[in-house]
Amino acid sequence: MEHVPPPAEELARLDRELAELDARRAQLLTRRAWLLAALRPPAPTAAPGWNPSAWGAPPPGRPGAPAQPWGYVPKQPSAPRSAQNVLLALGGLLLAVAAVAFTLVSWGSMGIGGRSAVLAAVTLGALIAPAVLLRRGLAATAEALAALALVLTLLDVYAVHAVAAPDTDGLGFTAVASAVLAALWTAYGLALGKLRLPLPVAVVLAQWPLLFWAWAAGAPALVVGWALLATAVLDGVIALWGKGPGVRVTACVGGSAMGFSALMVGLALSTTASGPLGAAGPGALLLAAAAAALAGAWRAPKGFARTGGVVAGLAAVAAVGGVPAAALSDGWRVLAYLLGGLALAGVVRAGLPRDAARGVLAASGVVVAGALVWALPSLAAVLLGPVTLLSDVWAGPPEGFRAALGSTLPWSELAAAPVVLALVAGLLGSAYRWWPSVVRIAPPLGAREETPKPDAASSAAGTPGAAWTAPPGAGAPWYTVAGAGARRRPSGAALRGAAGAGALALGWGALLLAGVVLDVPYAVAVAGETALVGGLLALAVRGAGSGRGASAVPVTALVGAVSGAVSVGLLSLASEGAAYAVFGALAVLFAGAAVRVGAEVPRAVFAVASVVWGTVLTGFAGRSLDLDPHEAAPLVLLVPALTVLLGARLRRNPVALPVELTGALGALVAVGLAVSDAPFLALVLALCGVLAAGAAVRPERRPVAGYLAAALFVLATWVRLAASEVSFPEAYTLPVTVPALVVGMLRRRRDPQASSWTAYGPGLAATLLPSLAVAWTDTDWLRPLLLGVAALVITLLGARHRLQALLVLGGVVLALDGLHELAPYVAQVAGALPRWLPPALAGLLLLVVGATYEQRLRDARRLKDALGRMR
Question: Could you give the 3-state DSSP secondary structure of residue 651?
């Protein structure tokens, strides 16, 4: 119950709490006053002619005005710039429409002089007006008229071509016109530096002269590529040294588009060249593009420098690798590009800026990754190809390795795949072996980037990017800039482990692919793959037992060993002798690895794999003996029996449980094989029960294995009875009842306070209830008699030993069995009596019960109490 204090005590408690709240409120008010004083320092002494309002100080004589921080400048009402821009845009648009209509409609009705005068006057006026407007401070109006002048100059060019030079080639005229307009607008934009439109327009117009000139001259694709590249270089120069962000952004976008187009032209020509000489020209174009990208990356900011490095590296690989690739067959061209990509790693000693060097190295990684992507599908075909042998086990050894895979890949065109994997594996292996030297070679590439410290002035002015720091000893304040520290990068040990793991995996794949490319004999392929599995196991055992933990190399070796074992196991299914040799060797190798390895997880994996290979061997034995699946099921139980014995030897070793569970799966396989034949199924279930009982001898396995053994024995008995066509329910229930009663007796002996329902209820119900159900439909007298005698004995034992379960179950079954026996006679008597007698007897019975209701109620309570006192 909740304690309610007396009123006086509760009042004193409330007074104390209110006093604490008042003290806390006083502290907070004091702190607030100090903060307000800190935010509102006293104004300095005003010098003659000094106007405080110019610096944001509140005007005097305004008591209660909100305090403003030092340097606060109130916002002045701004002019409606949006409305002004809308009006200017509409005006410029209407003037442009009028100019277009005049040029297209009224142009033909005027003479040459009139036309020239109109063109010169309108264009010259549109070009001069922005200069006058800028002097008067009307910048927005000047921008609108500059846009109109742009449209007019374009119309002038169109008009000149349509009237003065109609026979001139359109592409050539467009090239010359775009060059002239680009120069004109460049000079105009430089002269009127306050206008933002002319210079970006000049950059856009400068994109077309060289391209249209090459197009008009009917130049080959290589010349078009050079024109695109020259335009991209010009854009890069403008992007680096141009005036204003608009010019630089426009040049960057144009240079990216033109440079990408030039690279695509060079790459297409290089890959389709008929020979090295034909690939030399596109290679020169690609090399020039690489040099231009690298030069831009040398001076570009961080993100652009890395992008330029990537582009330069990829273009250089395409240029250098394209020449020898043109002389090679299709299956070997990837090797030329891979060598070029690997050569890019030498950029770490080239003295390039860090960001550009990182971009080049990223390009090298992209080339290597592309070569691996090209080679890995063939490796997957080698590992997964033997799955097709499951449909025809032991059909006979094929002629060669390729025939055993059943793959339709063009292996002659994949001859370079093992060389590609071997080269990359060698590079990664060298890095893993001489990692300290690698770290010494390229220290700048892994250097952390430091955040520049702002000076006092920039910090006071709130310069973006200034780093705020807390005073010494203080925690990180709320205004600490997130991400000010250096980014976390993988440690050197992790990178070295990744290199070693990649070298191991790719080297293993290279050896497998070499066997397929060479189409070695089937026996050599099986022996070679088994030897590779043994080598991987040795590496996994050595790495896991070296005390360095689960590093990448031993984990990769473990995964490769298991994968290779599955692959070579499937490959061996073509021949009976090869299957026995391979799975026997695998079982021995994995068992030896489980014994030698020191770490628990690898040991469990090796032990489980060894059990699996042993189970497969027992299945092979049944097939070799020409046994049916159900006849071979007992042989499969040999390995589960060994796992039970091994578990008893290992006791509480962490490996024991995985081994025993794997053996239990093997026993489940044996049960599945015997399902088609009931007698063998009963035998297999009984043998599984024996194995479970053997495991239940150990205390740590008893809670699960004990119940499993009992269930298996009962199930085996039932299957055997069903196979013998036994239909008596007692034959099925008594094998359950007897052990259950024995267990209940042992339970009651150990715990006399245990309930009789828990100890004897399940066992008795398992036999009495099914027998009672059958007895009610049985026309013979023997089963009801035996059931009644058994129920009577059980009832007397329950009354003698005061066991509630025995008394209730026995009494209920005895009563129902007796009612079944009396039912025919009751029916005969009921048929012979007059119809008025049953209602009269029922009424008399109700009268008697009603007259003695209190006594009957007391009798029922005494019976309930007597039953309740029983166990």
Answer: coil
Query: Which residue shows structure tokens 């209920």?
Result: 812
Q: What angle do CA 126, 206, 230 make, to 5 degrees?
A: 170
Determine the Cα–Cα distance for residues 529 and 513; give it in Å rounded to an integer. Answer: 11
Measured at the CA of 196, the angle between CA 190 and CA 201, to 5 degrees, comes to 80
Q: Provide the 10 A C-beta neighbour count for residue 189.
A: 23
Q: How many CA atoms lie within 13 A of 347 on its CB side?
A: 27
667/615 Cα distance (integer angstroms)? 9
Amino acid at 266: G
Tell me the CA distances in angstroms from 726 to 320, 517, 686, 763, 825, one per residue in order.
Answer: 86, 64, 18, 21, 33
Distance CA 513, CA 417 (A): 7
Average pLDDT estimate for 33-54: 58
Q: Does pTM top 0.90 for this prediction?
A: no
Residue 824: phi, psi to the nearest 5? Answer: -60, -40
Cβ atoms of 180 and 166 closer than 8 Å: no
In 3-state terms, what secondary structure has residue 195? coil
Q: Reduce the secondary structure of 104-135 to three states and give it as a string.
A: HHHHHHCCHHHHHHHHHHHHHHHHHHHHHHHH
- The token pair at 425 is 């594996």
CA distance 456 to 466: 10
Distance CA 330, CA 337 (A): 12
Residues with Cβ < 8 Å from 366, sequence gap 6 or more? Answer: 310, 313, 314, 341
Q: Cβ of 554: how many Cβ atoms within 10 Å?
A: 27
295 CA to centre of own chain: 38
Rounded to whole angstroms, the Cα distance separating 572 from 577 reads 8
CA distance 715 to 732: 9
Pick the closest to residue 643 from 658, 627, 659, 628 (CA basis). 659
* pLDDT per residue as tens digits for the range 639-653: 999 999 998 888 888
Give per-residue pLDDT as tens, 420-434.
Answer: 999 999 988 888 888
DSSP, collapsed to helix, strand or coil, labels residue 309 as: helix
Q: Which of 257, 258, 367 is nearest to 316 (CA)?
A: 367
